Amino acid sequence: MADLFAVEDLRLSLPDMTRKPLIGAAPRIEILKGLSFTLPRGEILGIVGGSGSGKSTLGRAMVRLLQPTGGAVRFDGQDITHLTEAALRPLRRRFQMIFQDPMSSLNPRHRVGQLVAAPLRLHGVDGADRLAAQALDHVGLSRDFARRYPQELSGGQRQRVGIARAIALRPEFILADEIVSGLDVSSQAQVLNLLEALVKDLGLTLAFISHDLSVIRRLCSRVIVLHQGVIVENAATAQVFANPQASYTQELLDAIPLPDPDQIWT
Amino acid sequence: MSYLKITNLSARLAGSDTRILRDVSLSVDRGQVHGLVGESGAGKSMIGKAVLGILPRSVEIPSGSIELDGVDLLQLAPAERRRRIGASCALIPQDPLTALNPSRRIGGQITDRLVDILGWDRARADARALEILGEVQIADPARVLRCYPHELSGGMRQRILIASAFAAEPKLIVADEPTTALDVTVQKQILKLIAAMQARHGTALLFVTHDLGVVSKVCGSLSVLYGGLVVEETGVRDFFAAPRHSYSRALLAATPKYTDPLASLVPVPDAVIAAAQAQVAAADRRWPARAERWPHG
């Protein structure tokens, strides 16, 4: 199958505002140091790493919320590395994003129905309300949720709204950035099951950023392990867990507290 | 006798019938680590806050007792209660980024409590701060004492909060989700550090967490909470071998476990939630029988 994303020697540096002199430009720190990988259609790719490893930056570069400083990002064969915002516009409806914190990514003044219909209206899609209602159906929220405000919902329900908003445009690709890390284990399980079903039903390709390898194992077919802006491992999920190649991957695995008092930490 | 003994503790939003804790009883002895587990809103943090006397003003305790070393804190006058808690208890907070004052150096933030509450002289407090930072494995503690919080990493700041909690040799520490904000490799270091410090000092530790994986690493016993009600209290080994309550079993099945991906991350079934809610409702029917008391008055 064709690759939906092809990333080649991706480099990205951002100004380090903590070291910015009073006058003049801040020094730049390199966050992504030459990443190359491909993401075939229909796959769920896990991107894992510790804080500061560059996993969110990588995701944001893929959906062009950030512009890479080097290398290339190809989406469905098209080079999007340095496209202008105007040129990106028609592509944007083909890749969507679900954010980590639904409380700060959903406008508290808008009702759920408006929130989910917003991207449809923005792209001038006909029948926005009907499609928004369909999207809510897809994530298992009943129709009367459309009239509620985000703060009236539980964390798991809010995250479903985030998912509904991302799928409303029927994108080909969704980037999910730590979308279950703020949820209780039970809501976390529900959201993961939902995501898994949606990927199958809607034929989505998904990049799932997480710091939690247990969650990755459950959901993803392939895993990229990032450490300090470099890919240290890129393999099928089963292989990463059975036989991790990088010492950092092993370190991450060893640090997961299993619900088992017989697991002894050294 | 247990160092901390909570008996039939109830809490509600002041002046309303909205219940937060329902007849909670548990005890923790010196040298023991007791876990408080549950989903958000189950009341696990509220128990910790009630013990430390830092409940929000909107929460009142109509019944129950919190005995610290045999003395019921709820029967004491507010000033005396504060003095007693301040002298013998400490908190390790959740978020190391917000728990430290960004505009003050680390040193003063550790010694404040020793000087202001415990009445130590400055030289003794400074020496103790230096010593306790060494104990939590901070390299070059003298330099770190002069740093501002933003100059240090999240893991480092959590080490400082642990040091600060242990500085005055408290008998009881409440740790409220101390590693939730950290990534797994740092979490492992911090949990090992808390366990080592607790064992060395023989502290009673009340450990609030939503993560059963974390419980299995640091706790000796635990209480599982649902809707402010303790549905199960047991030893950790017994719990993980065979949880008795259906909600406990469901919570364990929902916990991610990479070694067994198919048997983990199962949502809590509706029937289990219904059963737990029925139990909560049954507890509420016993509620009016209790004597009303206003310890915050």
Explain the overall architecture.
The complex is a heterodimer of chains A (266) and B (297). Chain A is an alpha/beta fold. Chain A has helices spanning 55-62, 85-92, 102-105, 112-122, 128-138, 155-167, 185-202, 213-219, 237-242, 247-255, and strands at residues 3-15, 28-40, 44-48, 70-75, 78-79, 95-98, 173-177, 205-210, 222-227, 230-236. Helices cover 36% and strands 25% of the residues of chain A. A six-stranded mixed beta sheet of chain A has the order 6-7-8-3-9-10, sandwiched between helices. In chain A, α6 runs parallel beside α7. Chain A is globular and about 50 Å long. Chain B is of the alpha/beta class and 297 residues long. Chain B has helices at residues 44-52, 78-88, 106-116, 122-135, 141-145, 154-166, 184-201, 212-218, 236-241, 246-254, 270-286, and strands spanning 4-13, 19-28, 33-37, 59-68, 71-72, 89-92, 172-176, 204-209, 221-226, 229-235. In chain B, β7 (172-176), α7 (184-201) and β8 (204-209) form a beta-alpha-beta unit. In chain B, α3 (106-116) packs parallel to α6, α4 (122-135) packs across α6 and α6 packs parallel to α7 (184-201). The longest helix of chain B has 18 residues, at 184-201. At the A-B interface, α7, α8 and α10 of A face α7, α8, α9 and α10 of B.
Measured by DSSP, the beta-strand proportion of chain B falls in: 15-25%
**Annotation, overall tally of beta strands of chain A:** 10
Shape of chain B: globular
The proportion of strand residues of chain A reads 25-35%
Evaluate the radius of gyration of chain B. Answer: 20 Å
- Count of distinct strands of chain B: 10
Largest sheet of chain A: 6 strands, mixed
Main sheet makeup of chain B: 6 strands, mixed
Helix and strand string of chain B, N-terminal first? EEEHEEHEHHHHEHEHEEHHH
